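Posted in: Protein Modeling Q&A

I'm a second-year student putting together a small comparison for a lab meeting, and my supervisor asked me to include a predicted structure for TAP domain protein. I've never done this before, so apologies if this is the wrong subforum. The sequence is pasted below exactly as I got it from our records. If anyone can share the structure token output, I'd also love a short note on what stands out.
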Amino acid sequence: MNIRRRTTAWGVVLATSLATLGLPTAAAAPTTASTPGAVAWEPCRPEPGDTEQELKLLPGSECATVTVPIDWNRPSRGTFELSIARRKAQQQRTGVLVFGPGGPGDSGVERIRTGMSRFSQRLEDRFDIVSFDPRGIARSNPVMCSAALIARQPSPIMKSQADFDRTVQYNRELAADCRTHTGALYDHLDMLQTVRDVEAIRRALGEQQISFHGSSYGTMLGTQYAEAFPQRVRALVLESVNDHSTPTTRRFLTEQAATAQDSFDEFVQWCADSTSCALHGRDVRALWAELQRRAELGQVPDPQRPQYATTRFMLGFAVFRLLYGPDWARLAQTLRALETSPPPTQQPPVPTGLAPFSFAPFCQDWDLPLRDYREYAGLLKRVGRANPEMRYPGQLMAITTCLGLPRADNPQHVLKVRDLRTPALLTNSLHDPATGYEWARNVARQLGRQGVLLTYEGWGHGSYTTSPCVEALVDNYLVDLTVPPRGTRCAAILPTA
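Accepted answer (user: helix_wrangler)
Welcome! Here is the predicted structure, written out as tokens:
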């Protein structure tokens, strides 16, 4: 088996839709621990698919597993092995820093195995940095489904009630298939279960408290861990903040489209201002509209697999992902290349065997119902009027993928975090395409005195590795528990062309 790595928030949607990207791989160093302080660490082993560079980065990483219940509400119904990894503090040890992966679908083990570019040297010196593959992901009993069935996933751009009904039927068929190939864990993937997994990791490590840094979807893990176990939190960093209080499908999609549109607008402005843009002097919005029209006709190649045609939604998703960095120069070059590319003539092959479907946890964490096609079409019409270039944001697939499935075990709620010894530190870009700045502000309001928002005035999904200012303030907080003054802002750094 072969784990495909480094999908980030919402990136897993694209990966699972293109089911031919790879199959999950074998676990590394499968040792177990179920009692406090009993983790049996071993050097992480090479795995199929590791590049030469990744193999060079492997030394120093340690891997293990922790035995946890399939269902924390009914522990007697069986267990599975949760994969974890760490790198030990290099100098004066402060404690353990747990990194909460994004996604859903990111591998925390991979983050540790193949280097520490996510963390500053100061954090590497002072903390044992630990992460894990969340339940249902990568090495932790991954959700597996028939690859051919995943490849048939309907487009989220539905055009009739018949399309709506087919999507519901498909989702139920896929869920049954995944349950068959994954086992009992398939029905216990929600964040409340993962919160208990993190507490099991803490206990197995023998630590009284942990520091936690969550990114994107991992911020939801951080806030819900703090709700359940505030006395176990030494420090809590929430980067690119996920607002799990968003109550309705309409508000969820409206907010997601708005933040994607804002990031696209910033790209267009950069192209107008910068001669480094391959589309400088061009009408970028008109070019984008024409590419969308051609994609609707099957005439635009997939930027990643140019021998095959892309769809209008997947073309938009590719643009959305290039706004994450943001990688504006590459986005401009991609759009210019697609403008002159001939229509593809090949059809993608039908995959065989099993493939991972790591988006499954989302449907157990969010209730985003739609009654019928009429409600859906009305919602898209309103979203499109306000967000003409991003009328079909990537998160649209999050809504349609969950249609017809059981209600979430961990539905949206307003945070109730009490008794943190140190306020949580939130950090968000003003122009984040995936977790908008208003989400961070809203979570900060919910935390009240328990939360402090650090604003990065620039662009992209994530700010710690983008801004030295953000990095320094986050490090000061994690190492010394120095909380920056409320209202602190870090200046924007223009993306490198």
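A couple of things worth pointing out for your meeting: The two ends are 37 Å apart (CA to CA). The chain has a mean pLDDT of 92.
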